Amino acid sequence: MDVYLVPVGLEQFECYYEAPEQDEPDEPVQGQGFFARLRARFNSQLKEAESARHDAPVDDQPASFLGRMQKRSMRWIAERVAEQRLLWHLRKVSAATLHIPDTLTSDQADTILRGALKRDADHHRNRLILHSAALIIAVPVALLPGPNVLGYLFTFTVVGHYLAWRGAVTGLHQIAWTLAPNAPLADLQRALSLDEAARHARIHEAAARLHLPRIARFVEQMTAST
Prior knowledge:
Layout: E1 2-7, E2 13-16, H1 34-51, H2 65-90, E3 95-101, H3 106-137, H4 139-142, H5 149-173, E4 176-182, H6 183-191, H7 196-210, H8 215-225
Parallel strand pairs: 1-3, 3-4
Antiparallel strand pairs: 1-2
Helix pairs in contact: 1-2, 1-5, 2-5, 3-5, 6-7, 7-8
């Protein structure tokens, strides 16, 4: 598994993983109990969210308020899938390569990686506790068929935060990381000090050298937010 330590500021970095679009982490469903039904609904949501990534024409929008809210929730879920894909996949590997800007030492990169994974583990553990409590309150509607927004959102967030927490913990304590210096990632970092037009061109050049078609958008979105 290849993970990239991507510069999003002159001294800021984010871990990035670009999985095939169809490579979603379906969870095995065993038994007929509540948690089996929860995971089955989660798998169904992943497929629905993928189809909701592209905006439908206005006249194709659901007529009811609840239907429109459910469709919007699917788009929100699609965004969260993209954000958490790295952590979800870390659960299933025992070794990974971290590609780092060749301007960083291995010790610096390892510190950044482990700090990010620790923050992710704490964040998703805390969210899991809160959203699990909310799901318990919403149990009467969480697994009912039909457009119930609470059931869709809390089913996804509980399972999603659980998988992300497990991935972060696995990355911290179980994965054997190999660090690989990478020149295009250093070019991305240098591009952030350029004017807007030159920065845009340099980011896309580096993305082409990395053979990662979606990393340019990720960098530009993250640098805008920071």
